[in-house]
Structures are given as structure tokens and as C-alpha cells.
Amino acid sequence: MALIPPFFGEGHPMINFLQILINGVVLGSIYLLATVGLTLTYGLAKFPNFAHAEFITWGGYIGYMAIMQLGLSTPIAFFVVSVGSAILGVLSYVLVFKPLSDHGATIIHLMVASIGLGFIIRHLAMEMWGSEVLSFKIVWTPIYVGTVSTTILWISAIMSALLMSIVMHLTLTKTKIGKAMRATSDNMGLAEISGIDINHVMLLVWLIGAALAGIGGIFLSMGSYLVPTLGLRLLLSIFAVAILGGIGDFYGVLAASYIIGFAESFGVIILIQLGLSVDYRSAISFIILVLMLIFKPGGIRGVLKRRD
Fold first, then answer.
1. In a domain, 7, yes or no
2. 237, 261 in Cβ contact below 8 A?
3. What is the count of structural domains for the chain?
4. What is the CATH number of the domain that holds 172?
């Protein structure tokens, strides 16, 4: 992300660790927004939705259309992005994944279908907006607090993740639909016997997940640039977050998002010291992903359960 502030203090080569910490919070907040939908749909539908990457990209393009082509204000653009991405998520479930599931599709069928759907969405975006690099052409003035700098965009990303976490917690613990979501994720058959409308729950999860992914996408694209592979570039990191947090576990993903964010933020320093491109940052997520699959496939949730 090009607009995340530098890791080194101005005028001297010392590493600014507080800046790295702030950058980790920013990365973690965006990963949280982008991953919640992936882990919740995996927890209910029991397959990895690779098209989730395109929900992120779609949010970026919808935001670009709203701000740069229609001239809407940024707050309204975020609302448009959430609605547009939510519609895409609902259509994906209703037109693709639900019919396949109803006809007995296996996890492999659903996974391949998600790859194909992602291909279609990506090329649809390319037909509508082209394949060239796009920019919002918005200059974010740095906000300095001592030796640390940030922007209103990254502060908004952090606050959005915080607000989403609070709302999701209250939804999951205090509302009937939240309890239905948890029950369906734990045991879909038992939840259906208990009278829970599984289709309604699934529809809501796809709607919420895609909307949040779209918001993550507009934050990413406004902070750097917009290309058709925006979501694909993030896919490895968000899968690492989902697996580290424990598939279907919102609270695990909440913790894992910031663990991965901090790991990548600190890892960039190593890459810089080695003279390597910071684009290799995703390799850090890959290493964490492989180690988790080998040693703790249950993720953070699995570790905590063993301790209990």
C-alpha cells in the first residue's frame, strides 16, 4: 500500500518502530474488513470462496465510479460500495452457489465454481473500466503525531474495522440472527431441525461478507491504485488470516488480522534491509499459512480449545 507512511524517521536512518506498529494496525484493519466475509461463508458453506477476492476488487471499482465518474462525496461513495458489493454477494449465492449446493455439489465443485465466478467478475470489471491502472487522484495530507504520521484515510480504516467489530460482536451475542448464524456454523443439520431458516442465514452472511469486502477494497484502492487484480494480490494474506483465526471464527479472525498485519509490517523492514522489493511482503503470510497448516490447522481457536 503506497500511502502507508515510511518506516524510517525523516533525516536519519533509524527505524521508526512506532510507525511500524501503526502501519500494522492499518494493515490489520483492512485485512479484518476483507476477511470476515470469507471466514463466515466458509464456516457456513464449508468451501473456500476464491471469488471473494473479486468482491474486494469490485468494491474498489464501484468506489472509483462513485467518486471519480459520478462525483459523489466520499461518505456516500462508501455507502454505494457497500450496497453494490452486497448485491454482488447475494447474486453470487442465489445464482451460483445455492443451486449447486441444492444439487449436491461437493467442496471441489463449489471451489472450482468460485474460481470461475471470480474470473467472470474480474473480466466484467475489465470490460467496464478497462485493464489499465486507475487512481482516485486524491492527495491525503499526512497527519503527524510526534515522529508518527498517518492520514485521515487510514484513521477511517481503523475506525471502520473497530465499528464493524463492535457491531458484529453485538450481533453474534445479542440478536436472534446472530445466534442463528453461530448455530448454523456449528451444526447446520441441527440448526435446521431447530427451526432456523438456513437459507435466510446464508443469504445474510453472503450479503454482509461481500459488503465488508467491498469496503476493504475501496480503502485499498483509494490508498494506492486500482487494478483488476487488486483482490487477487490480497488473497494469500486473507486466507492466511482466515486459517490462523480458525475457519468460521469471527473472534479468531479479529485477532489473526492484526497478527498478520504486524508480521507483514515488521517483515517489510527485513525485506528493505535485504534489498528486496516490499512486494514480497505476501511471502510472510504464505510462511505463516504453511506453518499453521502443518502445526496448528485449527488456528487460534484450536490452540485455545486445547488449553481449555
1. no
2. no
3. 1
4. 1.10.3470
Which distant-in-sequence residues (6+ apart) come within 8 Å of 7 by Cβ?
Answer: 15, 16, 19, 20, 23, 268, 269, 272
Give yes or no for a contact between 280 and 74, defined as CB atoms under 8 angstroms apart: no
Model confidence pLDDT, tens digit, residues 64-98: 999 999 999 999 999 999 999 999 999 999 999 99
* Percent of the chain clearing pLDDT 70 (strictly above): 91
- Residue 115 carries which side chain, given as an amino acid letter? I
Please determine, for residue 303, whether its predicted confidence score (pLDDT) is greater than 80.
Answer: no
- Grid cell digits, residue 122: 474480474
pLDDT number for residue 308: 46
pLDDT of 235-293, one tens digit each?
Answer: 888 988 988 888 778 888 999 999 999 888 888 787 777 777 777 777 788 887 788 77
| Residue 200 located in a structural domain | yes
Residue 150 phi/psi, 5-degree rounding, is: -150, -170
**Domain contains 8:** no
Average per-residue pLDDT in the chain? Answer: 86
231/233 Cα distance (integer angstroms):
5
User: 107 lies in which domain range?
Assistant: 17-307
Nearest to 241 by CA among 180, 282, 190: 282
Cβ neighbours around 169 below 10 Å, total: 14
Instruction: Answer positive or negative: Cα dihedral of 189, 191, 193, 198.
Output: negative
Q: How far apart are CA 288 and CA 127, in angstroms?
A: 36
Q: Decide if 59 is inside a domain.
A: yes
In the chain, where does DSSP find H-type helix? 17-45, 52-64, 74-92, 98-102, 107-129, 152-174, 176-186, 188-193, 198-223, 230-245, 250-273, 282-295, 299-307
Find out whether 59 and 217 touch, Cβ atoms under 8 Å.
Answer: yes
